[in-house]
Design brief:
The protein is built from five helices and four strands. By secondary structure, it is an alpha+beta fold. A two-stranded antiparallel sheet has the order 1-2.
Amino acid sequence: MPFKHQRPCSYPGCPELTSERYCSKHQKEIENKYNKTSRPFKKLYNGRWRKLRKQFLKEHPLCEECKREGVVTAAEVVDHVIPHKGNEELFWDESNWQSLCKHHHDVKTAKEDGRFGNKNEVYSY
């Protein structure tokens, strides 16, 4: 199996060579920073949410986006139509929920989070 060529770490000013994006020291730093900032509202998704999510998926078992495309696909995710950004009233508002398959949820979230070249900000830090 061929080896990846080593190149400098992508962390600004780090001269370490690595076959990954960051050297092992900076990879840990990047992961810690990501974990602290990527899901600032993670606590809302524990406890009560799990039960409500399960019930919502029972009542709305098909992906809304797939239905619009004329395809029948089981929903796996309960999505917030309008991103709640930590607003608990919006988070718990069932009229703001929709059932989506993982693919459509990932695409929607990526667009909202600024990936795929879209620089919208869902969360403010």
